[in-house]
Amino acid sequence: MELHLVRQIADIDQRAWNGLVVDNHPFLRHEFLQALEVYQCVSPQFGWYPQHVAVYDQGRLIAAMPLYAKTNSYGEFVFDQAWSQAWQSVGLPYYPKWVSAIPYAPVTGPRFLVAPDQDADKIQALLLASLQKQAMAQQISGWHILFADQHNQAWLNNQPNWLVRHDCHFHWFNRGYQTFDDFLAELKPKKRKNIKQERRKVQDAGVTIKRLNGHTATEQDWQDFAGFYQKTFAEKHSLATLNQDFFQAVAAALPDNVLLVMAQREGVNIAGSLMFYSDTTLFGRHWGCVEEVNSLHFEACYYQGIEFAIEQGLQRFEPGAGGEHKIARGFEPVITQSAHWLVQNPFPSGIAGFLVEEKTMIEQYYADCWQQRPFV
Q: Which of the listed CATH numbers 3.40.50.261, 3.40.50.150, 3.40.50.2000, 3.40.630.30 matches domain 2-167+334-371?
């Protein structure tokens, strides 16, 4: 077997990489990751340096992993700035570090991509051992695997010297609903009434909703959405890393994995939300507007997504990180995990104590949120 680190995913054959992707996961597809690179969404400007992993056996790609060297912690959704400051306080560099994750997207999914005819545990153990050696040789401070799916994370939890962090997201689950009304019927009357009222407010405001994909969205739609996206980040005094060229490239390459919800008034786009979906899961990602309309955010980002998931028979809807307001709208708390390996840990007891406290806090938060679920 041969293991290679490549500085652009274009150096790995697209068909071979996609052959390792399960569930047609859009964020792991070669086209999506390549568009991030081609249109400079991951680049030195934003602190992302691709170092994707490819494992070959007699010339055949049998395993792969998205991997980036990072010079900051932006766009990860697992916050380790306090760790960085602690390292600096004792004169140790925290950057560069390695991150196996989807840039700017706290979506769950496999992080070890292994051919189905291979021994996954054996390949993953090979990856850990080889990459840990390379990390030390390259003076990488550590390796962070974020939002791995349950199978990958369970395996990582049993590996020595890997630390586990916990968080709580909110996901919607399809319990065999045939219609949106079937979903509403399972909610408490007050919550059901509130959702109906919110949807009616959007209609009464004269707003119409269009669901588009990579085939039907026009260049004007993508131009408008890119403007909404940029405006959202500007209002939050944050850094917008994606752009219109990226959105259009992904839509063209993966037209059947894209859901663009556009809100119009008098034929003009005033707001939009962008989602992606696999064979089983809908992932909500970005939202923006140029006109404030009561409850439009809930309609475009949540209710349209739920309705679409039901129509398509998708099993789950991950709308993004954070937001207790999602609970009243049918989303349930879910514990997520990330795994962290540190080349040098100058604060072993402090980090261990922090992880215990964080886990306890997240478990309590999860329990509190679970009690607030709106179901009958």
A: 3.40.630.30
